Each structure stands twice: as C-alpha cells, then as structure tokens.
C-alpha cells in the first residue's frame, strides 16, 4: 500500500528572515518593487525545492504572503475597501496600506483591524465587507505561484483560505458581524468555483481549502452556511476540460460536531488534526466511517511544537486509521508557518538538546519517515534503525525535577491566590497615595527599539562591547526617555524596556529552566517575528531580573515610574512548552518566579507595577465548553498568585492586546488587577458595552490609538476617541494610553503621537473636571 505525504503550509520568512528585511527595506524606500519581488520569488523556490527534496508529495503553493494570507484572500475576492482603492497605489502598496494604514501624498487612511489567528501568536488582518463591495475574482496570485512552481518542475497543491473560514472572520466597516445572505454566499462561492476551474485549466491535481473555523462551536445556521457555500463550489471540480481533487483542511482542533456533514458533502479529501483534538477526531471517524471515495489527510506531525515526533505513538494512530480507510495521506497537523525553519541553525544548543528538536525542515523528514514505516509495515518496523533511534529518545528521562520548585508548589494554599484587602477598598487608598489626576496618562512600557539599540545589543552579545559599556548605553537611553516623558507631561512614566530583546524571551533568558535559540524565528504579524524561548525543565528565579533598571529609572524622576513585568500566562503561551507536564503546572512555576520579582520591585520602592498578560486570551480553548475547566480556572489564579503578596498601596496594572475581551470580561475582572490597559482602537468599541454591563471594577485604559500603524493620529481624533470612551465609562475609572507598547515604531512616529495623546487627554480632562 502506498501512503503519500502532504504539508499544510510552510514558513515564508526565510532562514535569515530575508523576507522581513526585503519588505522593511522596501518600506523605507531603500529598494524597489522589482527587488522585493525577486526576493519573494527566490524564497518561494527555495522552500518548494526543500519540500520536493524531502520527498513530500503534496507541496503547498500560495502559502506565501507579503503580509498575511487572510489579507491576500480578501484581495483575491475583491474586498478592497474604497478608501484604499482611492489612494491609487500599485498592487503591493495597496496591500501594505490595508495592512498598516497609509499617510502620505496620496491620502491618510487607517489600517484594517488585526486579530489573533485562532490559538496562535500569528495575527491576521480582518477583511472588511460593506454594501458597496463587488465580490469578484480580483487577483492572479494563486495562479501565478502555481505556475511559478511548475516552471521549476514542481507540481504544487495550491492552498486557499476556505470560504467558510473567510466569511466567519470577515467584518463590516465598524467591526460588526456581517449577514451571510444568499447574495454574499453566491458571490463568494462563484469566485471559489472560478478559481477551481482556472486551476483545472492550469493542470493542478489538488487544491486545498483551509477551514480552521470548523473546529469552533457552531449552530445550525453555520452548518447551513457551510453547505450553501460548498454546494456551489464542489461541482466545479469537474469540467469539460478535466477535474481536480478538493481537500478541505481543518486544524487547531477537532470537527466531531460536523464530520458527518462534511463527509456527505463529497470532498475528495478531509484533513484532520490528530495532534490537537486528535482523540475526538479519531472517535468520530471510527463512529461515522470514511467514504470510500474520500481520503483522510491525517495531521500526525505537529505544526505547533518544536519537539520530535514520537514515532511509536504516531504509528499506533496510523494503524488505527488504516483500519478505517485505505486512502490515507500523512500530513502536518497545521501549517508549519507556526514553527521555526530548521534546527540546523542552532549550533549553540547541546547535542542532547538538539536531539529532541524538530522544526519545519526536520518535520518534513519525519513525515517521510512515517510514510516509509507505514508503507513497509510491521516486519520492517521491528528492525528499522529510524524507529529504534526514535524509541530510544522517548524512553530516556529528559530532565530531572527541581525539588525546591516542587515543594514550593505543593505548599501553596488557597489564600495565596487572594490579595487583601479587596480591590474596592484598595482603590481609594491608591488614589490618595499616588496623587494622580483624573484621566491619568501613561504608555504601555516599551519605546522605540531603534537600530542603534538592536545593534548595541548585538555588539554586546558578540563581545564587541563589554557589560559596562552596554549598561552605560541602556542607562543613557533611560535618562533620555525619562526626560522626554516629563517634558511631554505624562503622568505615569516607564523606563522604555530598552534592555529587552522581547518581553518574553528576555525573561526566559534570565530564568532557570529555559533554553533559547539563535535563529528560531516565527512570524507574529507582517514582518514582525519572535524567537520563543524553550521550556526545558522546572522553572525558578535565582535573582532579581528587572529591579536594576526600574529602580534606576525611578531614581531619575520625582514622577511615578511603573515597573514592567511579563505575566506567567503570557510567558507560558509565548514559549515552547514542555509536553511532559501540564500547562497549568508550568504556568504556576512561572507565577512563583514572577511573584518574587513583584515583591522585590515593591521593596525597591516601585509603587506601580504592570504585569503584562498580552497573551491571556491566546490559548483560550476554541470550544466554549472547555473555557473554564481547561484554561481559565487555572490561568486566572496563576495571575492572582503573582500579585497577591503586595501592599494595598501598591498599584497593580495589567495589559492585554489584540484579543476579543467581551466574552471573558468577568474573568479579566477576576484577575484582580487595579488597572488594565488594552488594545481597542483597531477594533470596535463594543468592549465598552461589556465593561458597562458587567460593572467591571478594574480601572481601564482602552487604547486611544493604534500603535501597529506608522501613521500619526491627530489630537482631535484622539479626543474624539476619549469622549467615546467616556460615554460608557465613569471618568474616575479611565486611563489614557496607546493600544500597546511603542517598540515597533520609530522615534519620529512615537513622540508626536504621544504628544497628541497627552494634549487630547488634557483637553478632555478640562471638560470633565
Ligand atoms: N513574544 C512576543 N509575542 C508578541 C509580541 C511581543 O512583543 N512578543 N507582541 C505582539 C505583536 N507581535 C510582535 C512580535 C514581534 C515584534 C518585534 O518587534 N520583533 C522584532 C524582533 C525582536 C527581537 O527579538 N529583537 C532582538 C534581535 C533583533 C535583531 O534582528 N537583530 C539583528 C542584529 C542587530 C543589528 O545589528 O541591527 C539580527 O539578528 O540580524 C533584539 O532586539 O536583540 C522584529 O521582528 O524585528 C513586535 C510585535 C503579539 N505577540
Ligand atoms: C505585546 S504587549 C507589549 C507590552 C510591553 N510592556 C510593551 O510595551 O512592549
Ligand atoms: Zn500589547
């Protein structure tokens, strides 16, 4: 029996982040479109060849993107709002204007909203549909890339975001849900049918529709939408000129509640995630069965972790699947976009560590191994060195437990999770003690990470400068921004986070139990990448991590300086977790380490401490029934454990970005922070309704302008925003701040924006006082 292999999607940023560099160069006007296109093409061909050489059968194309695949799909369907078309820019620049906003000779427009892509640290742009949109095939990108690969002798499987997921994520101009009426369904499915026919003409054998939204809860109307869309699309697979096979690819969870429906719809292949939601997916196909004309594309190699596959476990699963269908395809559980490119670049990791790791390229090899071991059957498996080496790895104990950490966890009591006195009694005490004006202004923590700062850090890490020189440099930067913030009239200052490469990696580097990589970059949004640290063993803190710079900054001013920490849930969610112990346990270990830091900051005289939980929402289970028992019931207490030991007078802030908060608003209040700042300006302000409706107790700073865009907001637009906020919230509870930290902005963008923000706050303050 032959078993083929499929890859859902491949990383596109490049081994040396070539794509990031090429795009950023282009934005700065240092190169032209032709150079940008050349780099993109070079990367695509390199990545296709890698997969072909690894023996992958179904190699994806159209998984490349300059910015985001949802944005590309919006463009493909003609969802380019008039305000971007009116700029009259070329194709790439229109795309970038939608992604980042535009401010220049052609006009001034804000960007599309950006949201988290399911449970990942990847962010997509939210397509916008309004009554003036004409939905029609408007891009040749998928076809161009298919032909580009074909010219290299590589026959690819084009990948598209499927129409169901696309429509479920599309919003109206004010961020509202859209109506899935017959007209929209028909127009969208016409485009997809057209795309399929075009691929038949081009000679493609497969096309993959990504439908991750199917792993979410759904009602009857969702099933009707799914059926409605595909009943138009599926017939297009057979035309007079040939036929093509359609793969519906799901990932990030199971589709037990609609597998039966999907299986009757007539797809040629159904892609299922057997890593996340594997048990449910297996149970449902065992129960319902597999249609004889349908292949199961089994996601057995994780697209979400960096660990080697356990071949024995995978083969067990594959064997059960083979009992159900002879048409089995082995694949990654999700797109490899969410893992780094190759372990080969990690020369500084010990061999016994590297032995356990598999990034995108190594995962290709794993797929190939598993296909070989499946094909050859039991006889070969008994003697195969591939299998025995893998079994040996999994049979050995990888790490020892840290007894001190274990004991400390075992001693935790329920009262350790409760801060005293209650928040309502703390708030007046803090107000009086901190002496802040109404509508206090602040920022989220980081200031521009300029090339100069990054290159000084690079020079320090290569030994070109010593720690005294580097620390002197950081101190100077802090002096500079303390002075600037005083001049701008900000009420609560920050030190700027110049010493940090990243808000998570920085802590990982200082805590025991973490390992970090040199080049294991993963895309977060647009050209922005992260290098998540690896949780290798039990976590502890051996010495203060942030006190030095926070205390230094406070010593330079009479105004209040906020201490700045990353919370345990966020450190956990933005690291590569262990899989031998639970997420809850790892997060608790982190909580204890950060708790010690909070107390050290307090002892050093820091009176406001912000503990960022930017990623709190990220790993909220996609199925509602799992929210509390699988996540919030331990994640929220972990945050409380961090700050429950401080005095009533110490003000605890937290910060969150990108996420939808409405549906977990009471859980956020239950974190028991005194103040929260959150992203609000790129999304609708319905969160304010939720705040109003639930008597949200935490003081809040809904971001008054978007920091992910290079455009500078005017004072009046910020004033308008603040007035909007004050319609829903009592002025005594409102803080004025941007959406998020300013690290990604240039100085020329950051300071004028803050100046406008402070001026706007002062103006509105005068009105309410
Ligand atoms: N982990 C994490 N996830 C997050 C966020 C976040 O801040 N952290 N924010 C949200 C949005 N996502 C973001 C993700 C990344 C960045 C970001 O700015 N990333 C930087 C890299 C940050 C970094 O680690 N920088 C290192 C290494 C920088 C570097 O590129 N160095 C040069 C050498 C330096 C030189 O000579 O210029 C090189 O390696 O080539 C440092 O500062 O030390 C980037 O892509 O440009 C921003 C937002 C959501 N998810
Ligand atoms: C992604 S949330 C960022 C929070 C952090 N304190 C900063 O300002 O950069
Ligand atoms: Zn943020």
UniProtKB/TrEMBL annotation:
<feature type="binding site">
    <location>
        <position position="497"/>
    </location>
    <ligand>
        <name>L-homocysteine</name>
    </ligand>
</feature>
<feature type="domain" description="Cobalamin-independent methionine synthase MetE C-terminal/archaeal">
    <location>
        <begin position="439"/>
        <end position="762"/>
    </location>
</feature>
<feature type="binding site">
    <location>
        <begin position="528"/>
        <end position="529"/>
    </location>
    <ligand>
        <name>5-methyltetrahydropteroyltri-L-glutamate</name>
    </ligand>
</feature>
<dbReference type="Pfam" id="PF08267">
    <property type="entry name" value="Meth_synt_1"/>
</dbReference>
<comment type="similarity">
    <text>Belongs to the vitamin-B12 independent methionine synthase family.</text>
</comment>
<dbReference type="InterPro" id="IPR038071">
    <property type="entry name" value="UROD/MetE-like_sf"/>
</dbReference>
<dbReference type="InterPro" id="IPR013215">
    <property type="entry name" value="Cbl-indep_Met_Synth_N"/>
</dbReference>
<keyword id="KW-0677">Repeat</keyword>
<keyword id="KW-0862">Zinc</keyword>
<feature type="binding site">
    <location>
        <position position="679"/>
    </location>
    <ligand>
        <name>Zn(2+) 1</name>
    </ligand>
</feature>
<dbReference type="GO" id="GO:0032259">
    <property type="term" value="P:methylation"/>
</dbReference>
<keyword id="KW-0028">Amino-acid biosynthesis</keyword>
<feature type="binding site">
    <location>
        <position position="657"/>
    </location>
    <ligand>
        <name>Zn(2+) 1</name>
    </ligand>
</feature>
<comment type="function">
    <text>Catalyzes the transfer of a methyl group from 5-methyltetrahydrofolate to homocysteine resulting in methionine formation.</text>
</comment>
<feature type="binding site">
    <location>
        <position position="740"/>
    </location>
    <ligand>
        <name>Zn(2+)</name>
    </ligand>
</feature>
<feature type="binding site">
    <location>
        <position position="618"/>
    </location>
    <ligand>
        <name>5-methyltetrahydropteroyltri-L-glutamate</name>
    </ligand>
</feature>
<feature type="binding site">
    <location>
        <position position="740"/>
    </location>
    <ligand>
        <name>Zn(2+) 1</name>
    </ligand>
</feature>
<comment type="pathway">
    <text>Amino-acid biosynthesis; L-methionine biosynthesis via de novo pathway; L-methionine from L-homocysteine (MetE route): step 1/1.</text>
</comment>
<feature type="binding site">
    <location>
        <position position="497"/>
    </location>
    <ligand>
        <name>L-methionine</name>
    </ligand>
</feature>
<feature type="binding site">
    <location>
        <position position="574"/>
    </location>
    <ligand>
        <name>5-methyltetrahydropteroyltri-L-glutamate</name>
    </ligand>
</feature>
<keyword id="KW-0479">Metal-binding</keyword>
<feature type="binding site">
    <location>
        <position position="679"/>
    </location>
    <ligand>
        <name>Zn(2+)</name>
    </ligand>
</feature>
<keyword id="KW-0486">Methionine biosynthesis</keyword>
<feature type="domain" description="Cobalamin-independent methionine synthase MetE N-terminal">
    <location>
        <begin position="5"/>
        <end position="324"/>
    </location>
</feature>
<protein>
    <recommendedName>
        <fullName>5-methyltetrahydropteroyltriglutamate--homocysteine methyltransferase</fullName>
        <ecNumber>2.1.1.14</ecNumber>
    </recommendedName>
</protein>
<feature type="binding site">
    <location>
        <position position="612"/>
    </location>
    <ligand>
        <name>L-homocysteine</name>
    </ligand>
</feature>
<feature type="binding site">
    <location>
        <position position="612"/>
    </location>
    <ligand>
        <name>L-methionine</name>
    </ligand>
</feature>
<dbReference type="InterPro" id="IPR006276">
    <property type="entry name" value="Cobalamin-indep_Met_synthase"/>
</dbReference>
<feature type="binding site">
    <location>
        <position position="116"/>
    </location>
    <ligand>
        <name>5-methyltetrahydropteroyltri-L-glutamate</name>
    </ligand>
</feature>
<feature type="binding site">
    <location>
        <begin position="17"/>
        <end position="20"/>
    </location>
    <ligand>
        <name>5-methyltetrahydropteroyltri-L-glutamate</name>
    </ligand>
</feature>
<feature type="active site" description="Proton donor">
    <location>
        <position position="708"/>
    </location>
</feature>
<dbReference type="GO" id="GO:0008270">
    <property type="term" value="F:zinc ion binding"/>
</dbReference>
<keyword id="KW-0489">Methyltransferase</keyword>
<dbReference type="GO" id="GO:0009086">
    <property type="term" value="P:methionine biosynthetic process"/>
</dbReference>
<feature type="binding site">
    <location>
        <begin position="444"/>
        <end position="446"/>
    </location>
    <ligand>
        <name>L-methionine</name>
    </ligand>
</feature>
<feature type="binding site">
    <location>
        <position position="655"/>
    </location>
    <ligand>
        <name>Zn(2+) 1</name>
    </ligand>
</feature>
<feature type="binding site">
    <location>
        <position position="121"/>
    </location>
    <ligand>
        <name>5-methyltetrahydropteroyltri-L-glutamate</name>
    </ligand>
</feature>
<feature type="binding site">
    <location>
        <position position="657"/>
    </location>
    <ligand>
        <name>Zn(2+)</name>
    </ligand>
</feature>
<dbReference type="Pfam" id="PF01717">
    <property type="entry name" value="Meth_synt_2"/>
</dbReference>
<keyword id="KW-0808">Transferase</keyword>
<feature type="binding site">
    <location>
        <position position="655"/>
    </location>
    <ligand>
        <name>Zn(2+)</name>
    </ligand>
</feature>
<dbReference type="GO" id="GO:0003871">
    <property type="term" value="F:5-methyltetrahydropteroyltriglutamate-homocysteine S-methyltransferase activity"/>
</dbReference>
């Amino acid at each position: 029996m032959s078993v083929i292999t499929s890859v859902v999607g491949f990383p596109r940023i490049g081994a040396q982040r070539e794509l990031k560099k090429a795009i950023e160069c282009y934005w700065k006007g240092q190169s032209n479109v032709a150079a940008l296109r050349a780099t993109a093409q070079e990367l695509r061909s390199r990545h296709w060849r890698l997969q072909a050489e690894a023996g992958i059968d179904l190699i994806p194309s159209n998984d490349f993107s300059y910015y985001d695949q949802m944005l590309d799909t919006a463009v493909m369907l003609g969802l380019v709002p008039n305000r971007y078309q009116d700029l009259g820019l070329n194709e790439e620049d229109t795309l970038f204007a939608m992604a980042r906003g535009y401010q220049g000779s052609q006009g001034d427009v804000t960007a599309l909203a950006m949201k988290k892509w399911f449970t990942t640290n990847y962010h997509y742009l939210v397509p916008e549909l309004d009554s003036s949109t004409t939905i029609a095939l408007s891009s040749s990108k998928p076809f161009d890339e298919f032909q580009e690969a074909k010219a290299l002798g590589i026959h690819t499987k084009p990948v598209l975001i499927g129409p169901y997921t696309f429509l479920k994520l599309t919003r109206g101009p004010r961020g509202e849900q859209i109506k899935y009426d017959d007209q929209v369904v028909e127009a969208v499915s016409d485009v997809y049918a057209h795309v399929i026919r075009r691929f038949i003409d081009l000679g493609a054998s497969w096309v993959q529709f990504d439908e991750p939204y199917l792993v979410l809860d759904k009602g009857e109307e969702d099933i009707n939408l799914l059926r409605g869309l595909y009943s138009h699309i599926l017939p297009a697979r057979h035309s007079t000129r040939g036929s093509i096979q359609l793969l519906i690819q799901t990932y990030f969870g199971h589709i037990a509640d609609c597998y039966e429906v999907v299986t009757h719809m007539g797809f040629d292949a159904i892609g299922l995630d057997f890593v996340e939601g594997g048990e449910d997916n297996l149970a449902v196909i065992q129960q319902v069965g597999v249609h004889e004309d349908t292949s199961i594309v089994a996601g057995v190699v994780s697209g979400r972790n960096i660990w080697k596959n356990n071949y024995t476990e995978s083969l067990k699963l594959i064997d059960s699947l083979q009992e159900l269908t002879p048409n089995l395809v082995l694949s990654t559980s999700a797109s490899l976009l969410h893992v780094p490119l190759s372990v080969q670049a990690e020369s500084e990791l010990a061999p016994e560590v590297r032995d356990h790791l598999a990034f995108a390229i190594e995962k290709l090899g794993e797929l190939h191994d598993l296909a070989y071991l499946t094909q050859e059957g039991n006889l070969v498996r008994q003697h195969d060195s591939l299998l025995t080496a893998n079994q040996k790895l999994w049979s050995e104990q990888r790490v020892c437990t840290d007894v001190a950490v274990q004991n400390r966890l075992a001693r935790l009591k329920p009262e350790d999770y409760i801060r005293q006195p209650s928040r309502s009694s703390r708030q007046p005490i803090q107000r009086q003690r901190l002496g802040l004006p109404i509508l206090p202004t602040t920022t989220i923590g980081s200031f521009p990470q300029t090339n100069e700062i990054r290159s000084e850090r690079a020079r320090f890490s290569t030994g070109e400068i010593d720690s005294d020189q580097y620390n002197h440099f950081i101190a100077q930067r802090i002096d500079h921004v303390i002075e600037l913030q005083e001049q701008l009239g900000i009420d609560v200052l920050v030190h700027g986070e110049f010493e940090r490469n990243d808000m998570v990696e920085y802590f990982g580097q200082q805590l025991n139990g973490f390992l970090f990589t040199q080049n294991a970059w993963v895309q977060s949004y647009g050209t922005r990448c992260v290098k998540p640290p690896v949780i290798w063993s039990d976590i502890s803190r051996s010495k203060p991590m942030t006190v030095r710079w926070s205390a230094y900054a406070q010593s330079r001013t009479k105004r209040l300086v906020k201490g700045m920490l990353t919370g345990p849930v966020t450190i956990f969610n933005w690291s590569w977790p262990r899989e031998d112990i639970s997420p809850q346990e790892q997060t608790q270990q982190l909580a204890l380490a950060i708790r010690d830091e909070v107390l050290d900051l307090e002892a050093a005289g820091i009176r406001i401490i912000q503990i960022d939980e930017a990623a709190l929402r990220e790993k909220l289970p996609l199925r509602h029934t799992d929210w509390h028992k699988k996540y919030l019931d331990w994640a929220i207490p972990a945050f409380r454990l961090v700050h429950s030991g401080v005095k009533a007078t110490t003000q605890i802030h937290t910060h969150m970005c990108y996420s939808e908060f409405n549906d977990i608003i009471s859980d956020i209040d239950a974190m028991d922070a005194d103040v929260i700042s959150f992203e609000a300006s790129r999304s609708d302000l319905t969160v304010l309704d939720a705040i109003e409706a639930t008597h949200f107790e935490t003081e809040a700073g809904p971001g008054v302008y978007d920091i992910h865009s290079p455009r500078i907001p005017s004072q009046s637009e910020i004033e308008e925003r603040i007035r909007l906020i004050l319609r829903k919230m009592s002025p005594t509870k409102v803080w004025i701040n941007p959406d998020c930290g300013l690290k990604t902005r240039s100085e020329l963008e950051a300071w004028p924006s803050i100046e406008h923000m402070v001026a706007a706050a002062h103006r509105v303050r005068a009105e309410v006082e």
